[in-house]
Design goal:
heterodimer, A: mainly beta, Neuraminidase, B: 224 residues
């Protein structure tokens, strides 16, 4: 005996109706990913890239340490964000701090550079794993590697690595956002709320991490460089629109054992990503795109050593490029800065830090704010150091 | 524009956080109930489903760590898994006790379906680990792949009725169409269509089904 709610002859019609409904929904909700030109470049950038103009020179201006939050003897993986619309603060620094890396008490710390005080504000813990886990309804064991960005409404977005059941290789990328823009950032609490996890992989979304700053796009959106690191290590790029909403992703698996891509736009279509290398040749890996990040190709590695340590790179408003790295020969005890006019040939290094063997000055980050280049990096795993550089006075005003 | 579906974040393929949480709870409730229904020592399967569903609901409400821990390790079950579990419950609660232990005789077409699921899963796993020079997973954000799935599900349903291949195919194709519809209207569980259709649990289950079909086939040929 079968209890039926409907005559059997009606069932095909119901399926047909469901099919029509689904098709209607698809028609109304389809919005394919659009990849657009980056806005990071000044008009002169294209010609500068091919010119023989004198290399930009930077000169040192100031340095120090960013205050640590209380009861946090360890710090790592800082990220800097310029706040061009904020009347009081020029810059925000984010990093993870706690008893030690990957400890359960690690949280994301934030400090702001106050223009009026000419100093960093006391560090505040702005995100912890409990807060994120409770909002998601999914457990998070550890968090780290914050990356910040401002959307077209000047709302702060913070992307954080959160681990699942396992170490960093079991990570997922979490997305947090200010519920509404603030005229001036609150130094104690920026008001972040959880948006969700970025969907980046099929197998339980495992092993995607974020490290470097996004590349801004012409429409106000951005490309967030991400990487996969379980077994093979390869770069992934996630697109966001001007409101900071995820649009889609691309990945490049033609290079293995390369992670933490740092994105550079040579012009609207030609992009480079410099990669932390775990290859035997121990040089900085390079991949390039000639169609605005849609398709990537492997390039020859830069003749600059890299032994499994993060490489930071960015483009300055005058069109030149800056890169920070730890050389293999000295490991993470030495931090170097290089300049370039085309993103491919790099100047002789300037030494930023030169510690004793076993010391660590690593995971550099950069940002341009108030006509200055700001650097931050892990200092001895105990704190975050910062430096400020300006373009040499004799060069200012040149095209 | 998605203004008429306010729970979808406009111009983004991702579901709102509340939708993610809803499907996280619903998916695990359905999957855990389905997985435990055979272990309840009650003859009538309708009661088994009721007992299991109530038990897991109470567990989820009283112990936050359950859903949180499952999400920590395994994220959220896919929509097709959810639909298949609900379909199993629906089939059992509609059936009379005499039909409860009826097993659909495996056919080559059933095996082909499980084989396709297993093969697709392998394709996604190899893509996930970067062993393929392709970008299969990112196509799950494209409307094109959803249109393709919609067309295939409709074709499967049409053939199931036209060729009278039996209830199994109608249910399987119907679940796929339903899962696709849920995905279109909610983007659950995470915005990617591949995850909505084929989560790793369903992929592993396909291997179990294939092994059982193979074992069944082998036993039959040994006895003939």
């Amino acid at each position: 005996m079968r209890k039926t709610l409907l005559p059997a002859s009606l069932a095909p019609l119901l399926w047909l109706a469901l099919g029509v409904l689904v098709a209607t929904g698809l028609l109304l909700t389809s919005s394919p990913m659009a990849v657009r030109r980056p806005a990071a470049l000044p008009e002169a950038a294209n010609s500068l890239a091919a010119s023989t103009a004198a290399p930009t020179e930077l000169e040192f201006e100031a340095r120090g340490s960013i205050p640590q939050p209380p009861n946090a003897p360890a710090a790592h993986a800082s990220n800097l964000l310029a706040l061009p619309h904020d009347p009081e603060y020029a810059l925000a620094a984010f990093w993870f701090a706690g008893s030690k890396e990957a400890a359960l008490d690690v949280g994301i710390a934030m400090s702001l550079w106050s223009r009026s005080l000419n100093a960093w504000t006391p560090a505040a813990r702005v995100v912890d794993r409990h807060q994120v886990g409770a909002a998601l309804g999914k457990g998070i064991l550890r968090i780290g590697n914050p990356v910040a960005w401002l959307d077209s409404q000047h709302r702060l977005h913070v992307f954080v690595v959160g681990t699942g059941l396992g170490g960093w290789a079991a990570s997922r990328v979490l997305h947090l956002r200010q519920s509404q823009a603030q005229t001036s950032m609150d130094a104690s609490q920026p008001g972040l709320e959880v948006v969700g996890q970025l969907p980046l992989g099929w197998l339980w979304n495992l092993s995607h991490l974020v490290r470097h700053a996004p590349l801004p796009l012409a429409d106000g959106g951005m490309v967030l460089p991400v990487y996969f690191e379980l077994g093979a290590k390869y770069p992934v790029f996630a697109w966001f629109n001007a409101d900071g909403k995820f649009q889609g992703m691309r990945k490049f698996t033609g290079i293995k054992q390369a992670l933490q891509p740092a994105l550079l736009a040579l012009d609207g279509d030609h992009w480079l990503a410099l990669l932390r290398s775990r290859n035997q040749d121990g040089q900085i890996g390079v991949i390039a795109s000639s169609d605005g990040g849609k398709v990537w190709q492997r390039q020859a590695a830069l003749p600059l050593s890299n032994d499994d340590s993060a490489v930071a790179a960015m483009r300055l408003p005058d069109g030149s490029f800056v890169m920070l790295r730890n050389p293999s020969e000295r490991g993470r005890s030495q931090l170097l800065m290089h300049m370039s006019q085309n993103g491919q040939t790099w100047s002789a290094p300037q030494i930023l830090e030169d510690g004793s063997e076993g010391s660590e000055y690593s995971y550099p980050a950069m940002s341009w704010s108030d006509d200055r280049l700001w650097l931050s990096y892990t200092s001895l795993r105990q704190g975050i150091a910062w430096q400020r550089w300006r373009i040499r006075a004799s060069q200012q005003g040149q095209p | 524009m998605n203004d008429w579906l306010p729970w979808l974040s406009n111009t983004s393929p991702l579901p709102a956080l509340a939708v993610q949480q809803l499907f996280h709870a619903a998916g695990w409730l359905a999957l855990l109930s389905w997985a435990s229904v055979s272990f309840v020592p009650v003859q009538d399967r309708r009661w088994r489903w009721l007992v299991c569903t109530v038990f897991w609901t109470v567990m989820m409400l009283s112990w936050d760590g359950l859903l949180s821990g499952l999400g920590l390790a395994f994220q959220t079950p896919g929509l097709l898994t959810l639909c298949l579990c609900v379909s199993a419950a629906w089939r059992d609660t509609r059936s009379s006790p005499a039909r409860l232990f009826y097993t659909t005789r495996p056919t080559p077409v059933n095996a082909l379906v499980w084989l396709i699921i297993a093969a697709l899963g392998w394709l996604l796993v190899t893509d996930n680990f970067g062993w393929l020079p392709l970008n299969i997973y990112p196509t799950g954000f494209s409307p094109g792949i959803v249109w393709l799935a919609w067309a295939l599900a409709m074709l499967w349903l049409f053939l199931a009725y036209w060729l009278d291949t039996g209830e199994w195919h109608v249910q399987a194709a119907g679940c796929w169409l339903l899962a696709t519809g849920l995905f279109v209207f909610t983007r659950a569980p995470d915005g990617n269509a591949w995850v909505a259709w084929l989560d790793p649990w369903l992929w592993l289950f396909a291997h179990v089904k294939l092994l059982r079909l193979w074992w069944h086939q082998r036993s039959r040929s040994n006895h003939s």
